[in-house]
Amino acid sequence: MEMMAEKNIDRRAESVQKLHTLLESRADTLVLYNQLASFRPFEAKLELRELLEEFCESLVDYTASAHFQLYRFIAEGTERRKSVKDLADKVYPLISNMTQKILDFNDKYEKATEQKDFATLDGDLSVLGEVLADRISHEDNIIGILTDERS
Description:
This protein is mostly helical.
């Protein structure tokens, strides 16, 4: 019985650590998003190009972190609570769709250098902001149920 309780504690500690990693990655990305948005109107200046490249790297890191720190953890069966699995099954297809939109943004802008590359950045950044807000809402729902001891 004691060994089982220790495994439960270890599993929960691992889960909490993964959540912290995800939240740190998310926070870094949101800070860069806000910095990038403050450059409006967008011109192909070196400072903006460097920030956009850094933002794209952070965005991909955050997206991967969510997958590896949260969803894969659940999908591999490490998480046993039915309420967590049910919610993850419900929102994961939505998250996958959002992930594709994030990767499309990255592909379009990670190497932007010329003014023509920035022509649609304002609109694309606004759409991306909405995608991130929806994604964060879904992630927070999963995090909420993961950290609810009654689950």
